[in-house]
Amino acid sequence: MTMRPAACALPMFLPLLLAASAPTGAPVEVEVGNVTSTQGGVHVDICPQAQFLTSDCPYFTTVPAKLGTTVVVIANVPPGRYAAQVFHDRNSNGKIDRGLFGIPKEPVGFSNDAPIHMAPPRWDAAMFVHGTAPQRIALKLRTSFL
């Protein structure tokens, strides 16, 4: 039986086709400190500037809260400039509960421990550069916003 030329070439190019469809990017591991209870989960968003401070960041996950420090891994984050926004979802409702004037009722934190002074942090204070290698960042949750 004779193989057609196109069929002969397929096995040769299969590894290239599989590599092209493989996810690109490296993990970002976020070490979240100051977790004060095991209630609910710790939610982490990794956001490019256009989605910073919104609820539609493209890279996110929630893991069970661990007292003290909770480590959250976001897989396959492409190289770029990002900011992490984190909250302790104590009641597991999938959103930050807010009080008067929109002030968070649940602990929140941002990459670089960007300052929160009666307003959300600035992008440039929270921004970090992610390359092609796995990366670990650390931040602390806060409940005081003065």
Largest sheet: 5 strands, antiparallel
Per CATH, what is the topology?
A: Immunoglobulin-like
Q: What structural category arises from helix and sheet content? A: mainly beta
Tally of DSSP helical segments: 2
List low-confidence stretches: 13-21
Number of domains: 1
Label the overall shape.
Answer: globular
Task: Give the SSE order as H and E letters.
Answer: HEEEEEEHEE
Question: Would you state the CATH class?
Answer: Mainly Beta
The portion of residues forming beta strands comes to 35-45%
Radius of gyration from the CA trace? 20 Å
Q: How many β-strand stretches?
A: 8
Going by CATH, the architecture would be Sandwich
Share in helix: 10-25%
- Span between termini: 79 Å
Mean pLDDT: 89
How would you characterize this protein structure?
There is one protein chain. With 146 residues, this protein is mainly beta. It has helices at 5-21, 123-126; strands spanning 26-35, 41-47, 59-64, 68-77, 80-89, 108-110, 127-130, 135-140.
